[in-house]
Structure formats: C-alpha cells, structure tokens
Amino acid sequence: MAEYRLTTPLSEAQVRGLRAGDSVTLDGIVFGVRDATLIRMFDQGQEASVDLSGAVCLHTAPNVKKVGERYEPLSVGTTTSMRMDRFTGPLLERYGVRGIIGKGGLSAESLKPFQRLGGVYLAITGGAAALETTQIEAIEGVWWEDLMPECLWKFRVRGLGPLTVAMDAHGGNLYAEVLGEAQRRLADIYARLGM
Amino acid sequence: MVTIDPTLVSQAAKELYIRALKVLPPDVKAALARAHDRESHPRAREILGVMLKNLDVAEARGLLVCQDTGTPVYKLRIGRGLEYDGPELLAAIVEGVKQATLEHPLRSSVCHPIDRSNPQTNTGRRIPIIDVEFLEEAGYLELKMMPKGSGSENMSFLKMLTPADGLSGIKKFVLQCVVEAGGKPCPPTLVGVGIGGTSDLAMKLAKEAIWRPIGSSHPDSTIAALEAELLEAVNATGIGPMGLGGDTTALAVQIEYAHTHITQNPVAVTLQCWRGERAMARIYPDGHVDHGW
C-alpha cells in the first residue's frame, strides 16, 4: 500500500503505476460531472468545450453561491458513482480522462476501459463534504449553467483526499473483493441464524 | 384553545432544514465514535476517522456535513388543545423550505420526475413530504425534519414474502439488501426495517424506524432481540465503511412492525447513510421554541 501525492493532469504511466489499496492525495484541477452533465455529453451528443485529457473527474453536484460573475463553493461533496457507470468508458475513450473520483464504486464492466486505456477509480469518503470543501481552493469554470447544480465544474484543489485507489488499471477491484468475501460469509451467517 | 402562529412554523421549518444539514444528532456522533474505537480494519478506521473529522470541520466552520441537501421530509405532530389552520401550517413548512434554499443558499436537489426540470427551491409537487400526526401530549406542536440523502434512499427495498418464508425469509432479505447495497448508501448505515402491514405500510414502518435515535432498542423485547441479532449479522458481512471492507457495516438495525394479512409477509428495508441527519423543534403558542433531535 503506497501513498502518492499527485498533480493533475495525470499521465498514462502515472495511472498505471497505481494499485488497488494505494492512497492518493491530489493537487491541481478536478472536473465535476454528474448524471445530467454526462447525459448531455454522451446521450445528447453535446461536446464539452474543455480539454479533459489526463483529467480527473469527480462525481458531484455542489452547493454554490454566485458572487458577481463567479461561483464560490459552499459544499462540494461526492455522489454515488454507480448511476453514472456507463459513462466511464466514453469519458476515457473520447475525452482522455484518467481518473474518476467517486463513492460506492463502479461495475466490473468499467474495469475494462481502465485496463485498456489506463484509468483508475479513486474512492473518497462519501458524506464528508465539509472536509472536501476545505480542499477546494476555487471554482475556476462552469459550463452548462442551465443544468444547475449538475453543470460541468472546474475546481482547483489542494490536498484533495485521502483517496483510495479502489479500482486500478490492472483489474484490481476492492469492491469486488469485499463483495465476494461478503457473499462467502453469508453462508456462515445463515447457518448461524439457523436458516 | 390556544392558537399556533404559522410564521413560527415556517421559521422552524427553515432552521431545522439548515441545522439538520450542519449538526448531527448526539446519538449518531456517539455511535460513529464507538465504531471508530472498535474498528480493527486499518482502512475502515481511517474512513471512520475522516467522517468524525468532517463533523468537527462542519461545526467549526458552519459548513454542510454532506453536499446532498436530500429530499426534505417533515413530521408535523400536533398536540391536544391547540387551535390551528391545517392548510396554513402545511404551506408554512413549504415556505420554510424555500426560504432555507434561497437564503442560505442550499443546492436544490428536487426535480420533476419526467422532464427533470429543477424548480431551484427544493420544493415541488408533493415535496417537501409532510406527515401529519397527533400527539397524546397537550399544548405544543412538534416539527421534525429529515433531509433524506439520495445515496441511501436509492437503496430502498420491498419484498412481499409469503407466510411460508417465515421470519427466516425476513432475515435473509435484510442481509441480501445490505450486501447488494454495498458501498453505495455510504455505510456504516442505519438499517430501517418494516415488517408486516401492506406494501405501503411496510415501507412507512421502515422509514419510522430510521427516525428513532441510533441504539434505541424497540420496546417489544422480541423485536429488540431481532434488532440485535440482525445488527451482528449485518456487521459480520464485512462490507465495512464505504463498502471498502471492515467490521462496521451498520451502526444499528431498527425495526418497526404492524399486523398483516393472513396471506402476507411483507418486509421493507430502507437505509440511512452514516450521517443519520434529523432535527426537531417544539413550538409553543406563546412563541417559545425548544430545539432538539
């Protein structure tokens, strides 16, 4: 279990160097995406006019306050990733995204683009938005404000983490390990409960 | 008869929404701290530590604990001997939600189910959810608030088991739900279970169970024993905090039940994320308001 402090954008080599169970802290830029953002990008085919090559995306829809022409972050947390699972491959393939920060994990299907193209899933502690917000330095950009709060957000972050590499580019998947173990244990639990 | 002023209710509805999002109930904090002390898995312990640190940061800086402002759910509980205008009280709660959302401001997490448009007020058709109940006690009105987070709400389950499935079927279903939910509902969760009734009542009972303080055993000793048995079984799955493994998958299993039809054996499961957010205010006709959980 190694610990890394990385600055975005991430290279393919950096991402392939990470293993499930490693701990990562991030500096640089993180792009916020959510259900409606991804539906617009991929189901409705609208191009995001921003360079996402080597980018890290965060599954979020923040609480913000508009001050003049800018948005200030009030609460930036992380949402359940599985709803947006099917957009993982397209984000990597079409936009060159290297990392997804989320909670709860993605399906085994999403491991394939991580392996093929070089990508990782970084698990954050869900519900811990106060701490996460203190790690956001500024909101540097916003696209598709009509989707508020599910716009495409550009956050400048410092010390974002700790993040756990939960799915890596080599087929490593902590969620599948835990789930497999839980299913094995269920048999014993049923027996103990007299079932 | 003494009259309740609806502006007190809208003010309370607003304050409760914001407070529930910023300060967790003492029973939840204590349960998280106990879990952190007991946890043997290093990663799980680190995650529980982040959760506890997050609560300190939220309180110290006045930040929201989680970015999800949830679906606003209220219980309006009316004591005896009060005079009130019912529709006016309901409108006052809706107004309180709008004020909280626009003035704080809070993210609006509520949208139309078909065209997905967001009114940007956290209100809409039949939202906030308001349950009206009547209290045995006289002389005050109680308003309870829960901003129900969606990561956990999306992990809600109902099964119409048969009488032949028995209590074993119920236990098995609860365990399967927790394992299927994995890390998605932000474990360690509060597992709410509703047993009996009809399909709608079973889910309502499961929801009733998550309003109870964490660790409050059911007054019926048979149900209390089932709660303890299921908590141990749920934690034995090893799903752990955020579904990344560990000893702490749930902070509590809480059950409510109702009688049911002779042909039925309904069970509903709802999960509440580790934050267990809720808040309560008692409003007296003289304008005095007591805040609690």
Key features of this structure:
heterodimer; A: 195 residues; alpha/beta; fumarase; 5-stranded mixed barrel; two-stranded antiparallel sheet; 6 helices; 9 strands; B: 293 residues; 60s Ribosomal Protein L30, Chain: A; 2 domains; 5-stranded mixed sheet; 4-stranded mixed sheet; 8 helices; 11 strands; 40% helix; globular
Quick overview:
The complex is a heterodimer of chains A (195) and B (293). Chain A contains six helices and nine strands.
CATH class descriptor of chain A: Alpha Beta
The helical percent of chain A reads 25-40%
Radius of gyration of chain B: 19 Å
Order of strands, widest sheet of chain B? 4-2-5-10-11
What is the number of domains of chain A?
A: 1
The radius of gyration over CA of chain A amounts to 17 Å
CATH 2nd-level architecture of chain A:
Alpha-Beta Barrel
**Spans of chain B with pLDDT under 50 lasting ≥5 residues?**
none
Mean pLDDT of chain B: 97
Low-pLDDT segments, ≥5 res of chain A: none
CATH topology of chain A: fumarase
* Order of secondary-structure elements of chain A: EHEHEEEHEHEHEEH
Discrete helix count of chain A = 6
The count of strands of chain A amounts to 9
**Would you report the number of β strands of chain B?**
11
SSE topology:
The complex is a heterodimer of chains A (195) and B (293).
Chain A: E1 3-7, H1 12-16, E2 23-33, H2 35-43, E3 56-59, E4 63-67, E5 70-75, H3 88-95, E6 99-102, H4 111-118, E7 120-123, H5 129-134, E8 136-143, E9 152-167, H6 174-192
Parallel strand pairs in A: 1-2, 2-3, 3-6, 6-7
Antiparallel strand pairs in A: 2-9, 4-5, 7-9, 8-9
Chain B: E1 2-3, H1 6-22, H2 26-38, H3 42-61, E2 71-80, E3 82-83, H4 86-103, E4 129-138, E5 141-148, H5 150-153, E6 156-161, H6 166-181, E7 189-197, H7 199-211, H8 221-236, E8 250-260, E9 265-272, E10 279-283, E11 289-292
Parallel strand pairs in B: 1-3, 2-4, 7-8
Antiparallel strand pairs in B: 2-5, 5-10, 6-9, 7-9, 10-11
